[in-house]
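Quick sanity check, Pyridoxal 5'-phosphate synthase subunit PdxT:
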Amino acid sequence: TVKIGVLAVQGAVSEHVRALQESGAETAIVKRPEELVGLDGIVLPGGESTTMRRLMEKYGLIDTIRVFAEQGHPIFGTCAGLILMAKSIDGEPSPHLQLMDIDVKRNAFGKQVDSFEASLELKPFAEPYNGVFIRAPYINRVAKNVDVLATYEDHIVACRQDRFLVSAFHPELTTDWRLHRYFVEMVTEYR
Ligand code: GLN
């Protein structure tokens, strides 16, 4: 079995832990850089990306997660976690981990639409997938080497670049474990 960490500075942590366990992985909570040692992959959950970034900087997690990524480990970012992984953020000067060749727009579906659910076609799956969106970002642009996995109303809401996976929606808030299972398979391949 692979061992996958969930970044736990803020946000939806326990739901990801449960989803990963249901998908056959061992799990660990990551609050400090040393807790990345021995992990095969990590999930960056939803929350508030500016708060998460501030806490990650405080605990020295920005650089250690970058190194962890460079070592070849897969990372799955959901919602705010997606924002953390983007190379650039629309209208904001300072991106965070800059791991993926994507440009994201925060709170992209408008203030009046705080949250919604939508049936999505996800490229790896034969059956539709219910996406839960909460003050969600979407992806404006992707580089050629990024594989688009899902769109909603012509906006990209999930994609993959080699060992990096992101979704604008919250897969941990349903009991459909297909996306976590997909990530666990990715982690198994890259180990
Ligand atoms: N709106 C949040 C942000 O920009 C993300 C929302 C979420 O993770 N549910 O950080």
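Posting the structure with no commentary besides this: The first strand starts at residue 3 and ends at 7.
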